Queue: 3 jobs
Job 1
Amino acid sequence: MISIMIDWIRSLPQQQHTYEEGQHLFHRNDPVRSMFFIEEGTAQLVRHHRDGGVAVLQRAGPGSMLAEASLFASAYHCDAVAIEPVTAMLIARRNLRRLFLTSPDFAQAWAMHLSAEVRNARTRAEILSLRTIAQRLDAWIAEKGALPDKGSWKSLALEIAVSPEALYREIARRRQ
Amino acid sequence: MISIMIDWIRSLPQQQHTYEEGQHLFHRNDPVRSMFFIEEGTAQLVRHHRDGGVAVLQRAGPGSMLAEASLFASAYHCDAVAIEPVTAMLIARRNLRRLFLTSPDFAQAWAMHLSAEVRNARTRAEILSLRTIAQRLDAWIAEKGALPDKGSWKSLALEIAVSPEALYREIARRRQ
DNA sequence: CGTCCGCTTGACTCAGATCAAACTTGGTGG
DNA sequence: CCACCAAGTTTGATCTGAGTCAAGCGGACG
């Protein structure tokens, strides 16, 4: 999906930036100047609540795009934070915009990418609307194919919004 | 947002259809032939689980588009059901596609619309990842501005995935 | 006037959050 | 090579928010 777009994006002027763990790539309400293309590391889109809690809107690993939804927006609608050292390609928004407006093929690839994001986000919401851990895990597995490897169960717990302990227990129960 | 696109869409050949309550506008895996523009009534995108439960991916009322994410997909990824009598405008996909590919302005409007859907869906997921009713209601209100009127609390409960009774209690608590 | 539906409230139950303590593992530095 | 540390995992005990069942209320509408 994204891979279709890479060729186009690579043809635009770009600038590489690195970010340390915990550093912000951008802040909510910042004017949108660049689009971010993650080459290494992982960044998260997060939103802060008045009660101090943070909610993760999206995790973006190598090969994914950050803030695709902002190409035609005037300001970012959330924060982007590196959760490990990140290398990112920055593409000036106006260049990407020009490409979009002049190349129908790129525009189509972009629309397909956005559509995939819509589906992803809706699927996540669908999973989160289930009431029990067992159901959420089933739905997650139905979507992704299989349970991930051991080291990443904690972040899976975060993704499906259950406590790690509860998820461990559910997994243990299934191993019976 | 959508209003920007209406003018364009209106210029295409269209066909009006009506659907009764409970009738399907399309089924999952059906080949995508048309895009649906709701004029009257309400339809829902739903997905069925093996355990018989249904999950609502999206509610679409008058003025909104159904299956925008399918313009470049080959098959629908969920079912669409009328939850009350629906009048919809059907636009042949190939016409909309041609418009997208030939009009950069329309393509931009379309991309903006998809971006808005991405944000909506992510916001919904964000709300659903909160653990208590109070938090979900706060987040919902922060997003939409205010508590809806009395007749629609039940569907609000559905949207934030809590039982109606629990929501009523939370609202009552706030009226103290 | 009766029926339907959304709302209200009570009582009970339980899945899962939270706190807590141990155990596995990989990596780091002495 | 080993002590040590940090993360993730495992398991136990306790508590509570919210789901469920149930019974009653009130307005809309044929």
Job 2
Amino acid sequence: MQGTNTSSAGRPRSDLNAVVFAATRRTVDELGYAGATMDRIAAAAGTAKTTLYRRWPSKGALIIDCLLDAFSPMPELTEDRPASLAGAIRWLAGKIGEPGVGAAFAGVFSDAVNDPALRELLSTRFQAPYLAMLRDYLGESEQRILLFIDVITGTLLHRMGMTGRPMEDRDVELMIDMVLKTFGE
Amino acid sequence: MQGTNTSSAGRPRSDLNAVVFAATRRTVDELGYAGATMDRIAAAAGTAKTTLYRRWPSKGALIIDCLLDAFSPMPELTEDRPASLAGAIRWLAGKIGEPGVGAAFAGVFSDAVNDPALRELLSTRFQAPYLAMLRDYLGESEQRILLFIDVITGTLLHRMGMTGRPMEDRDVELMIDMVLKTFGE
DNA sequence: CCTAATACGCTACTCGAAGTAGCGTAATCT
DNA sequence: AGATTACGCTACTTCGAGTAGCGTATTAGG
């Protein structure tokens, strides 16, 4: 489901993952998550829908890989805990504000609510790495880390979903102030 | 679009809104938001799909009315501000935990991300009353109230969407502690 | 060079759910 | 009685996710 294949025989996969991800974000940005059909994404990437389904088992899986691509690499965490957390939150808010990223995130999240397989994928491939990183960094219980993630991500996505636009900087700063009172030290 | 009609002539609408709302929540609880099709909701309510569409212009509009029904009346707010806010948060978490309510909420919210008309409906009919109430009660800027709503609702929905289950009480209490540090006084 | 193996692009299909049209019938008011 | 509106029903349109199968292209290895 990823990049170049390891088996030796046969025609290798052409190197179009990056093109597809860019086309996905562009299409979502222009037409919204629902408007970004697999047909349209394929057309924007200059390939065929069947090729997409050869690489990703579902639209949700494609979007998740596209988001993983958009959200890497992870943000830096230094010894200054409050500054690092604030930086990570600004980083997440910024990513969600990038064209197509927030809408794709909210869309796949919506789909996941009703699709246990997709939820599993979202939880395992998307949330788990950040959970592990934060648990190691903060040295707090998994319960608290999970709540931290729920608060940050949930708030940003709720704003995105309610207004259709990313959260403004001054509101991000307000949220940071609030969260740091509990998780800052 | 609501209850008994005011015009005098013609056959009056039968009194089945409450039945439909209950059927909707039951169906969403049993089959999930995506599985709760208009056909199935109609069948569960003992009516016809066309009747649903005579009363609500879309599935999203039906769900929103169903949620308005489930979330009324509003919680009590007393002079004790921290206790009132904590109570309101527990009330919201409890409602979202009721069978079918959280899933319906998350589902319609998901749809709204990609549907400006539905987003408008959600914002106007659902959020606006609570925004007004909280602004009057807290006497704070609309910006801060909106963030408060984003944090509470977003966090609860994110947990619901990520795990498929409502947030546990101890996590709700943790969230209350966090939020009260900023909005408690 | 030839063959096996795999990927590609394409057309055409199935399936399911939202939403619509139209009909005959039921209930209410004047 | 007649006008008016709602109901239940069947049938339909539309659209998007996902699939099947074909001919072709590209690679590795004999």
Job 3
Amino acid sequence: MSTRVSVRDVARAAGVSIGSVSRVLNDSGYASAALRKAVLDAVTRLGYEPDHTARQLRTGHTRAVGYLLPDISNPAMAMHLSAVERLLREAGYSLLIGSSETPARDQELLRYFENHRLEGVIALPVAEYPDPSTCPFTACGLPIVLVDRELGHPFDSVLVDHRLGIGQAVEYLVTLGHQRIALFASSVATRPGREKLAGYREALDRAGLAFDEALVYLPDQWLESPRERMSAILQLSRPPTALISIGTHMLSAAVRVARERGLDIPRDLSVIGIGTTEMLELMYPPVTSLRYSFERSSQACVRLMLERISGAAAGPAQQVMVYPELVMGGSCARPRCAA
Amino acid sequence: MSTRVSVRDVARAAGVSIGSVSRVLNDSGYASAALRKAVLDAVTRLGYEPDHTARQLRTGHTRAVGYLLPDISNPAMAMHLSAVERLLREAGYSLLIGSSETPARDQELLRYFENHRLEGVIALPVAEYPDPSTCPFTACGLPIVLVDRELGHPFDSVLVDHRLGIGQAVEYLVTLGHQRIALFASSVATRPGREKLAGYREALDRAGLAFDEALVYLPDQWLESPRERMSAILQLSRPPTALISIGTHMLSAAVRVARERGLDIPRDLSVIGIGTTEMLELMYPPVTSLRYSFERSSQACVRLMLERISGAAAGPAQQVMVYPELVMGGSCARPRCAA
DNA sequence: TTGTATGCGTTATCAT
DNA sequence: ATGATAACGCATACAA
């Protein structure tokens, strides 16, 4: 591999100074038409491409942001990542990804991002830090946009209104006549699970239904699998007639257990999924589900990030709320023996 | 934000020269125990972190590789990406991702990666370039590892033996008594579709069955949706009794059409999916499917890349083959009226 | 309008 | 064994 051509080579070939080359290429300062042409000709002739590393060292900006997430292979996260990457690239930024399965990795990755002089971090921390003084995000000097997480200290963030969404789902099921509704969601250790549980309880209250702990599965650790829990729930003296569940894994496990027991969907069990269409299309009947737009969420993320980087937003942390909607499928019906 | 601490600050605080600081930190050259301690103390006291950009400019290596893929939100690709990211990071490298939906973007991204001085590129090009002289990958000076693609010019690559996999799937169905087997896969414009078609034809030949073009759907453009095609296929005078299909989207669409027509799986239609467990678990009965290990594929990718970067592999391009296996579910049965 | 010179933070090559 | 200094490729303040 021959050594790359630099500004110096271009300057020599064009018979001008390196300063002039730089000025023409960056449209900074004055440059006569003749000089301009000479430089541009030399550039194309030599196939010059500026070295990003050197420019970076000189100007101090990398035009790159980091994306910290617990698990890239999670389909929902991958879709969000995908949209963010596209939007940032359109804005001239590139994306460095880092997966952080543990809180310790959060800190490590943030330091890594800082040392690489990234200009900001979009993050879905795997855990929330109750104490701001030990929270690595608080300590990080970079602009940060949180996705559906709360970290005590106020950060720019894009939040999904899970509370509202679950409320709608529960109300819909109640309208159909359901009184025993199971909820499978993620741990209350992070915002999505916490808000879903809150929305669930609020909606039950509004409907005058009792909250039954036995019907909710919000695993902190996976001591008990969704399969096991679903089995136990179906053996209750008063089993649920409806299920609201997140994601592909939990939902598929729960539904399979139900079907293995001979239950028909929606005749014996109504089901509402939470997630994207794509994955849930596989089920038959198509599952009624709670969805929100990744596109909108990603746009908000990128907007907040760019505003913060450019300094357009210098004030306090901003929150953007994204609203889910209930998309009707064929997985819900009136319970068989409505009370 | 206060200005960062540099080697100079550390040197001053430790009462030594910047050269000594660098030597201690990089374990290069000599350093007495006393000097060593003084430097290390100053480093921790000031919280010094080396600037990656400057180091990069000086040493010429970025310890970063690019990952070029058509679509991050594709679950299979996301899983591969996820594993690659983890393995590379363990080896001290970071990953810059770039999604390229069109061939024009391939070139743009590769140039981008070159200018950013990445040390290599792992790529799943969206299209294959028949003419090596117009292939941007051939022009790219960086080490390249291709994932399940062939680009004429020999590149390091990790390939899946789709031909073998489809062969197994067809043979299994033939053993059950099927004679009309439909195939839904990606376009023959890239390797996966091409190899699948080849494996399909070979297996039919071996079984003494005729190839019927009407039963294969390998869309180049999506002029016709999987739904439409499946509808047409089921209206044939001799409709298929079995279906082999890739991915979540095609498979779910095809299966849904079949079910809407009242067909039962596996009684009226046997189904073999190609992809990962996770997604296909949603179906009931669980779908028999062709799988290969993303972990193994990713490991091979990273190994090839690191060998090429380190210079350990200086010879001709290497190919690593990954073999799929048929995982039994409950979506296949003998055809209703076996000939 | 253009050329020259300095510095970004490191590493590495020289002296000492 | 350690300290001074050049150079990586670029942008820019300043001189011309």
